[in-house]
Amino acid sequence: MSGRVVLVTGASRGIGAATATLLASRGARVAVNYASSVSDAESVVAAIAAAGGEALAVRADVRDEKSVDHMMAVVGAEWGTVDVLIHNALIPYAIKTFGEMTWEELGGKLDQEMKAAFLLTKAVLPGMIARRFGRIVYLGTGLSQRPREKMIALGTAKAALGQFARFVAQEVGPHGITVNVVSPGPVGETRHSDVFGPDHQARQAALVPLGRIATPDDVARVVAFYAGDDSGFVTGATASVNGGAAMD
Question: SUPFAM superfamilies from the xrefs (predicted)?
Fold first, then answer.
C-alpha cells in the first residue's frame, strides 16, 4: 500500500475510520471523507498523523455530483489520482417493516445508494484506467441475502449494489482494476449498532460460531485485503465477515 492514494468514504467513525487508520499504517495516503462530522474526521486524521501516516479530511455528500467532483479535485491537488476507492459511506434508510414502509422510503434508499456508488465509481475510473491499476471495494451487508426484521430498505439497496459491483468488475477487469464487496454481518461499535439494543445484539452474538459480533477492525482487515496486492487476481467477489453466522 506504500504511497498509494486511498479514498475512504464515510471514514469519520466506525468501519470507515478503522479502515482509514489501518491502510494509513500500511503506508497509504488516505483521504478521510465525511459528510458532516468534521470533528470526528479531523480526529481520525490527527491519529493517523500522530502514528506517522498521511491523511487528509475532505468533506463531500457522495450523493451529489458537484460535491463528489470537488472532493476528487481536493484529493487530486494534494496527491494525484485515486488508486483505491473504499465506498463505505452509509446512506440513511428507514428501519421499518414492509407493511409500514412507503415507496418513497424504499425507492429513495435504492436511488441514493446506487447514485452514490455510480458517482464515485465514475469519478475514480478514468485515472485507474489510465494507470492500468485500481482497487474498488464496496461495503455491502449480509442482509442482502439473509433478511432481518425491519431492514428491507438496507438489504434491498445493498443487494443492488452487490450486483452493480459484478457488472463493473467484468467491464474494468481488462484494465487491471479489481472490484469487490465486503459484506459484514452485525457490527458493534458503530453509529447504528445499538438500533435494536443490547438484548438484540446478545441474541445475534449467540448465533455466531466465533462467539461475538464483528468489530470495525474485523471488517477493516478484510477490506484491506481487497485493497492491497494480495487480492490482485480476485474480482467480482463478495467476502462475508460474520464470524460463521452464515456459511456459503
Answer: NAD(P)-binding Rossmann-fold domains
